[in-house]
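User: Please predict structures.

Assistant: First:
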Amino acid sequence: MFQKKKIMIKKKGAIIIDKERCKGCGLCVHACPMKTLENATDTVNQKGYQYAQQILPNYCVGCASCATVCPDACISVYRGDSNLAEIIKDCVRIIYLKVKREI
């Protein structure tokens, strides 16, 4: 008999943090099981807060723990295979830059 091989596709997550709305409370940093987030130490947003930022994007699994605990709903989470996550991040960056230029 032939044995079927199981192919495992690594699910990958992509998060987008609205840095201008983030107050830097750190709840998302502590909630992330993969430890991919930290509060910025050298920059602040327009409100003067040290916002959360993703430091290890390749380790994000898209579990949405960060978005669940965020009191200001600053984090959007996307799940898919590794290519999908990168495509989503690129699209969001492009849209953000276009909107920023129009303002």
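Second:
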Amino acid sequence: MNPEQKYSASGITATVWTNSKDGKTFHTVSFDKRYKDKEGNWKSTNSLHVSDLPKAIMVLGKAFEYAALKSPNTSSHEEERRTTSVPQPVHASLNQSVSPQPMPMTA
């Protein structure tokens, strides 16, 4: 299976794939970051540094735009997502401070 489209920025790549099931065509997107380790070998990860987030948002946004405009059919899964309400962001008032919640440490 060949990728239909790829978007990359500084080693961060979003790849759009075309899939078919039950006569319906739909797109999926894979995502990874490529880097060289200390020995100079290429590695791949889906873990990002905070400074990578703008690039990740950009390539994933492009992949979404491509897939949304290219989709010939809408699968029931996509229809379900489209009709599901998305919670609105909560904004702190000017008198409140917002701090990130600590993530549990895993071994």
